[in-house]
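Run log, item B.
One chain of 142 residues. Sequence copied directly from the ordering sheet:
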Amino acid sequence: MNESINQLQDEVIAEFSDFDEWMDKYQLLIDLANEQPPLEETYKTDSNLIEGCQSRVWLQADVVDGKLVFKAESDALIVKGIVALLIRILSNHTPEEILDADLYFIDRIGLREHLSPTRSNGLLAMVKQMRMYALAVKSSRA
């Protein structure tokens, strides 16, 4: 059975709580970025670019068996690490689950307070875009 969004958030919080120093947490984000498979060039389109991000972030959403599967790429490592976390938590869930999710991990791992305002806006833009995809899929089925 698929893990719930909250179970996945709790796993991420546990991973980040292993580190006290923010430099180590940034390193964890960079490691996640490096593990993220590259996005196919065909998806690096203007329509997949997220507005509101300082660095360039492409987000592709596909529907597989009624669940949204996200893929993404960024030209900035920290941002790519952040989007990797979002994908790990939100991908492979139904539009309803994504729309109902309270993404408390962002505050719990200290991400919001340790990101520059522009990166923080970018993070919110990524979440908003993922929810927009979920909404679009949900309304197309209604």
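Observations after the first pass:
- The CA atoms of residues 13 and 90 lie 15 Å apart.
- The two ends are 26 Å apart (CA to CA).
Flagged for discussion on Thursday.
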